[in-house]
User: Fold this.
Amino acid sequence: MRPALRARLSMLAIAAALPIGGCSDLGGGGSGAAATVAKASGRPAGELTISQWPFYVDRDTIPQFSDKTGVEVNYIEDVNDNTEIFSKLQPDLQNGSSAGRSIVVVSDWMAKKMYDLGYLHKVDQSALKTVDANLLATLRHPSFDPERQYSVPWQSGMTGLIVNRDEADVTSIADIFDPAYEGKVTVLSELRDTVPLVIKSMGVEIDDATGADWLAAIEKLRAAVESGQIRAFTGNDYTDDLARGDATVAIGWSGDAVQLQADNPSIEFRMPEEGCILWSDNMVIPIGAPNPTAAYAFMNYVYEPEHQAQIAAYNNYVTPVEGVAQVFARGADATLADDPLIFPSKRFTANCDAQPNPPADAATEIEKAFGQLITGGG
Assistant:
């Protein structure tokens, strides 16, 4: 982690260790279809533990929420990629425990996977009035959770290129295979981000991509790893490689580029010529969550446009909340009302695709092949 970020994060209430195997009276296990609702009860109080991705909240939001509600927040930036956090929490979740967490932030596909396995509660929609009032219309009925029964968007974003423009002239995903950048390229360990972008660079439309196309893209990546072209597969820690100068080109997430500019103004997000991958990360309530009431209070708090504007001004991701542009327009951050990373236009994302799942008839083979690639297992 960069020193500047470490200094900022030290001001947050971050838990270094959490109790494992904690229990609650909400029940546990079972199928997603039979999931119970985590009911709100009384006024928010006590402790709230959140598992979150890095670079996603400013230094003031958490303490301000605590001051307003009296809830003590343990804010843990331990989500490096979706599969990694799932593996970390699964031993507890399968026993009906959330390992102390009341909110975990994961991407759309992982939220659905966890729900289908019975690892998530349905949300108490009656306790989310501010969320309901301010959630963008375009995010109200996603295909993975059409009625928002178990997910509340945290932020959305774009997967594309993050480039040190002083070191690399890169505009296309195909450029990551240019020998000029040998050993200076990182790509994400998220199957649904990296492989679809490589498929697009091979001239195949994502909607038309077959299992064979996915496997061909994985083999292209494998060859680049074996030749030394690709330095590493990473989760959110690719930012460390860029900050140190060990990488000059990365497949990465849009808002992270702005975070990195604090130490190196030459780092920027570039929309690939092929287009990007669009996604959302979501707040979910894991089975056994000890304090859903505080979780709902936090969700409502960050859905107030003034509070959300503070978060979006920091992380530069696509906000899920109506009214944020108006907050920017009348304040000191007026230029952010036109920031394409926070409010991307249809033109800006014209060639982008929603984050896809691999074709069902080859999903197991694709998951296995990619898993072996990123772990060096053959």
Q: What stands out?
A: The domain at 3-150+285-303 is CATH 3.40.190.10 (D-Maltodextrin-Binding Protein; domain 2). Residues 1-30 have pLDDT under 50 and may be disordered.
